[in-house]
Structure formats: structure tokens, C-alpha cells
Design a protein that fits this description.
Rossmann fold; alpha/beta; two-stranded antiparallel ribbon; adenine phosphoribosyltransferase activity; cytoplasm; PRTase-like
């Protein structure tokens, strides 16, 4: 029996009701990462999508984007660039602020992370409102990179983030999606 790999991954993602606050269902990827088979299937999904594309770097968003992004970069024989939360990088940085539900946050990169014209895949674990991915894409673009696509394991389409990223002109790929009613 053939199993759809995206459905396989979706079934392993843990749903944690009422976290971080009542009424919110947290989509937890740690069971996927803990199991060698599902982790390999997840990485292979991304590898198969990007192995024929001309890319120079993978940029992963702090922190779960580091896990998938660095393994993907290794598998594709590319460099990896971390997009960090503000105040975590030791060298000269450039920052981009974005809005959160209850305020603002910033992401940073080293000023020498990318060279103008480099083709970069941007990856994170989840797209909710899209603020973090949009800020990371703007940072990469400010440094001269060509962001080829934004990718994530999970899309929460009801929150509008993937549409906001698409509306910015960036292509989006996600492995699976969840609506709030999905348990």
C-alpha cells in the first residue's frame, strides 16, 4: 500500500490543544523530528522539490527553521544562513522589525550572510500570520539576495500568512496545512 508522504507527515504532527493560550491548537513538529523515518520523509519531500533548482543558499528562521534548513542545505550541497532573533548574532548585523499579535519583534542576519544575486530558499517550520517569513525575506532582499521561495512544514491558512507571503510576490511551498477545526 502506497502512503502519501504529505499525509504521513501530517498524521505524525502532534496537536496540543489550548497552548500557548486557551482556544489555540499548537501544531508540534517534534514527533516528526524524533522519529528517524518521518524525519527522513520530511527532508526528502523538500530535497525532491529543490534538488533540480539553481540555489546558492538555504536561509532558516530561528529556531525550528534551523533544524530543517541546515539538513536540507547539507543534502542539497548548499550553504546555510541563520535568520536569528534580535541580539543573538555576534558580528555586524542588519535587522528587520515585524508585527506580532501583542507587539513587535525583530529578526537579524550578519551583514555578510549573502552576496548580491545569490538565489536563496527561505525555510521555517510553520506559516501563521507570515510576519516572520516576510521580515526574513525583506532582510535577505535588503542584502541583495534573490529569495526563490518561502517554504515551511505547516501552513495555517486561516491566519492568512501564506496568502500575505504570496501577495508580497514570493512563491510559497508547504508540506501540509491545518485549519483550527482540525484536531
Amino acid at each position: 500500500m502506497q502512503i502519501d508522504p504529505t499525509q504521513y507527515i501530517r498524521q505524525i504532527i502532534r496537536n496540543v490543544p489550548d497552548w500557548p493560550k486557551p482556544g489555540v491548537t499548537f501544531r508540534d513538529i517534534t514527533p516528526v523530528l524524533q522519529d528517524p523515518r518521518s524525519f527522513r520523509v520530511l527532508i526528502d519531500l523538500f530535497v525532491y522539490r529543490y534538488m533540480g533548482q539553481k540555489l546558492d543558499l538555504v536561509a532558516g528562521v530561528d529556531a525550528r527553521g534551523f533544524i530543517v534548513g541546515s539538513v536540507l542545505a547539507y543534502e542539497l550541497n548548499l550553504g546555510f544562513v541563520p535568520v536569528r532573533k534580535k541580539g543573538k548574532l555576534p558580528f555586524n548585523t542588519v535587522a528587520e522589525e515585524y508585527s506580532l499579535e501583542y507587539g513587535n519583534a525583530s529578526v537579524e542576519m550578519h551583514t555578510d550572510s549573502v552576496r548580491p544575486g545569490q538565489r536563496v530558499l527561505l525555510i521555517d517550520d510553520l506559516i501563521a500570520t507570515g510576519g516572520t517569513l516576510l521580515a526574513a525575506a525583506r532582510l535577505l532582499q535588503r542584502l541583495g539576495a534573490n529569495v526563490v521561495e518561502a517554504a515551511a512544514i505547516i501552513d495555517l491558512p486561516e491566519l492568512g500568512g501564506s496568502q500575505a507571503v504570496k501577495d508580497s510576490g514570493l512563491s510559497v511551498y508547504t508540506v501540509c496545512s491545518f485549519n483550527e477545526s482540525d484536531r
